[in-house]
Amino acid sequence: MQNKPEVSLIKENDDGSADFMFNLAPEYITAFARLGIMTAIQAGLDGAERYDPDNEEPPAPAMDANIKRLAIEAGFIAWDEEEWKPEGIVFDWAGADDESLVNFYHLVRKEAIAQEREACATTCEYNQASWTEAQWNDACARCAEAIRVRAAQ
Questions:
Q1: What is the domain range of residue 20?
Q2: Per-residue pLDDT of the chain (153 residues; tens, 9 = 90+)
Q3: What angle do CA 108, 110, 140 make, to 5 degrees?
Q4: CB 3.0–4.6 Å: which of 25, 131, 146, 152 could bond 135 by disulfide?
């Protein structure tokens, strides 16, 4: 590779990031493309390991503050600090009813859709300066479809 690459600062953004322009010879572009493809393949292989049936089972889900908050909002009765509270138990399952379970399902679903929308918004904010209108239309259509699919489940 004979031509030396040039990197120029275009602007510094308010969020602390910066935009740069790269002037690369064709052989550098080819090398970066190969590196990008190999990195994507490796990331895919690494990510696929979790689907390997020979891998250990992931740790069992544990009760966290968010699950507890949603369950209480749905109508489940949580143990406070009663002295007769069973150790390690968060909810009084004797008070559980079908309505609370249905409410919990809908709250979890609503939360998942909100997280999906937040992820979409974050992606949009991150890419707003660099995408063309066609890229925006495509990304928004994919995001909307993903939200619809999740909502239908």
A1: 1-58
A2: 567 888 888 888 888 888 888 888 888 888 878 888 888 888 777 777 766 666 666 667 778 888 888 888 888 888 887 787 788 788 877 777 788 888 888 888 888 888 877 877 777 777 777 777 777 777 777 777 777 776 666
A3: 130
A4: 131
